[in-house]
Amino acid sequence: MERWKVRFPRLVSTAEHYGLAVLSVSMALSLALLLQRLHFRDAEVPLFLFAIAITAWYGGSRPAVLALLLSCTSFDFYFAEPLHSLRVSRFAFPYFIAFASFAALVAWFSAVRRQVERELRQARDRLEIEVAERKLREEETRSLNEELGKRTAELEASNKELEAFAYSVSHDLRAPIRHVAGFTELLQKSTASALNEKSQRYVTMILESANRMGTLIDDLLAFSRIGRAETHKTMVNLEQLVQEALSEVREETNGRDIAWRFGILPVWFGDRSMLRLVMVNLISNAVKFTRTRPHAEIEVGSTDPAQEQLVVFIRDNGVGFDMKYADKLFGVFQRLHGPEVFDGTGIGLATVQRIIHRHGGRVWAESQVDKGATFYFSLPGTAGV
Amino acid sequence: MSTLGRILMVEDDPKDVELTLTALEEYNLANEVVVTRDGEEALDYLNCRGKFASRADGNPAVLLLDLKLPKVDGLEVLRRIKSDEKLKTIPVVVLTSSHEEKDMVASYRMGVNAYVVKPVEFHEFVNAVRELGVFWAVINQPPPGSIKRT
């Protein structure tokens, strides 16, 4: 359908163009004959040239050739000696040739001009389309920007809501659990002699649960604070952080046989207190999960520190974990060991991951059950001087 | 124990009041404790207004202040105390459920004398309250004009 619509007018317009050639030449001829009858001299040349020019202009080069042929024939027949014959006398021949050449020149000029104009027109159309498209794209960009602004506002609002939620958790959830723990302990004291062993065990379990709930709430709040707190990045001496982390886990390492190995760690750009928490968490994990080993080995180091990103690893020879649970490792409250074997709330690695993500880095781990584990984290950015 | 300063406790939760009083009782510090249930009542007490209009003059030796309170909240009570010429010398100890850093920073900005987060474990809570009571009501020399029992 679309093709027909395009082709049909073109066919018609081609016929029109040749018609224009015939029409303009015959009008020029009639006018020239009329003027001749009115005794005007030499009016035919400019009239025919005009007709050719008009045809070339509006009809294109092929109709112009037709107009040229018609003009030459008419000129020869009506105005070149001998009159009313298609022969040209020797006498009038140069005149006829001059006319024909001049007419051809006019036709050529007009055709070239027409071609140039058509190209210009096409170029203009293309430009117009481009401008329209660009406007459309600008419109799209603007609406995307607006959308982004809206999303940002929504995110900010939901962040505020989260903050309010955390605030309310810390105030309102902690209070009842404190009361449970408090009154249970008072109960335990006041009925110590009256309760039988079983009941006393129940009371102890209530107490333990309440205290554990308290620890969980506190850990969860600390975790959410890390997400909300602003990072203050400076150049951090990572080796120093490792030493600080070591002194923090001293209580757990006392009396144990642990062989420490420390590789070279660079000074790197990051939030000091947050990265310190990362080191403390990873090192205390290594200490915790080698507890069952008579001789523990823990290594802290980094791989290819010269590159764009820093990769730090903490390797131990502890109980390890099954790699099929590797994706669960960094989830909140995810634990791969029962609480009776290894204590903890399951928030440490989630905290590590959150901190490293906030630094634009990545955390991962490799392990085999009973063959130790290696935890890695990467930090982007350039090394310090 | 020669003297015992009066402790003004501002706490809306009756269970917390009971636990705190129990902790103080264990060390004979509960006699001089006045309990108010919201910020407005606490300010009434301090300014001898409303139901405390007839009380004897004098500031408490220490104010134990919860932050989340009905009517006038803890931070507002603190702000009003510290901007009142007569009251601003009263030592104020914030005793709150929350670890919220924002509250802590705000409290210290307004000149709080101590900030204590109530521990979940009861014996830790008892220890904290006892130490607070002993320090502020017994060891510390309160500013002149405080109520003391000899």
Q: Would you give an account of this structure?
A:
The complex is a heterodimer of chains A (385) and B (150). By secondary structure, chain A is an alpha+beta fold. Chain A is built from nine helices and seven strands; from the N terminus they run αααααβααββαββαββ. Chain A folds into two domains: 229 residues, no CATH class; 149 residues, Histidine kinase-like ATPase, C-terminal domain (Heat Shock Protein 90, 2-Layer Sandwich). A five-stranded mixed β-sheet of chain A has the order 2-4-5-7-6. In chain A, strand 6 and strand 7 form a beta hairpin. Chain B has one domain: Rossmann fold. Chain B contains five helices and seven strands; from the N terminus they run ββαβαβαβαβαβ. Chain B has a five-stranded parallel β-sheet with strand order 3-2-4-5-6, sandwiched between helices. In chain B, helix 1 packs across helix 5 and helix 2 runs parallel beside helix 3. The radius of gyration of chain B is 14 Å and the shape is globular.
Helix content percent band of chain B: 25-40%
Shape of chain B: globular
Number of domains of chain A: 2
Our count of helices of chain A gives 9
Q: List the secondary-structure elements of chain B in sequence, H or E.
A: EEHEHEHEHEHE
Structural class of chain B: alpha/beta
Structural class of chain A: alpha+beta
Task: Give the low-confidence spans of chain B.
Answer: none
How many separate structural domains of chain B? 1
